[in-house]
Amino acid sequence: MPKVSEDHLAARRSEILDGARRCFGEFGYEGATVRRLEETTGLSRGAIFHHFKDKDGLFLALAQEDARRMAEVAARQGLVQVMRDILEQPDRFEWLGTRLEIARRLRTDPEFRKSWAEKSSELTDATLARLERQKTAGKLREDVPKDVMHDYLDLVLDGLVARIASGQGGPNLSAVLDLVEASVRRPDST
To answer: How far apart are CA 179 and CA 174, in angstroms?
Structure first.
């Protein structure tokens, strides 16, 4: 049997994640049956589950990859920029429905909650580090602890995702993000 290159395996894994993102986003976790995953990815269940232990493992890998992408932006430009990117380029964020599924499963599935807690710290860590750098630079309010700012921004992100994923965008959301950003900055900071 010929040996498959690491590049080929990584490309196949990425292809599966892209298809699964669309499938979970459209049908939710429960509705993303193995048959639908096969149809969306164009691959057999054997090919899919060669790369992922099971559907739950696939979903966790997808959610973790999406959190990693957001963490990269949050580390450089902040969590508000992640939200701005969602507004400006909604077609790049097919995973919005996936984030809603994560929230639902965190509420209803203790085993998932445990697995997710182990894998989801990257976005939180990136956001907290960015807030610390901004606070040290004197750009953020001094009267609000950074962990409270993080929870506030994360709450806004969840609300934005829920609103957009449910088809209720709107022309004022960019101005709302301006307000959110202004609310964490020092009044004399630009």
So the answer is: 9
In this prediction, residue 86 carries a pLDDT of 87
Give the pair of three-digit tokens for residue 20: 């699964």
Closest CA to 105 of 91, 116, 118, 94: 116
The pLDDT of residue 3 is: 66
Q: Which amino acid would we find at residue 153?
A: L
Q: Report yes or no: 181 and 141 within 8 Å, Cβ to Cβ.
A: no
Q: CB neighbours of 16 closer than 8 A, spacing ≥ 6? A: 41, 43, 47, 48, 51, 52, 58
Q: Cα(130)–Cα(13) distance, rounded to whole angstroms?
A: 30
pTM of the model: 0.79
- The answer to whether 94 and 148 are in contact (CB under 8 A) is no
Residue 189's closest CA among 150, 143, 140, 148?
140
Show the low-confidence residues of the chain (pLDDT under 50): none
Q: What's the pLDDT at 141?
A: 94
DSSP-derived 3-state class of residue 140: strand
Indicate the DSSP class of residue 43.
Answer: S
Local structure of 74: helix, strand or coil? helix
Read off the tokens for 173. Answer: 């959301």
pLDDT in tens, 103-121: 888 888 898 888 888 777 8
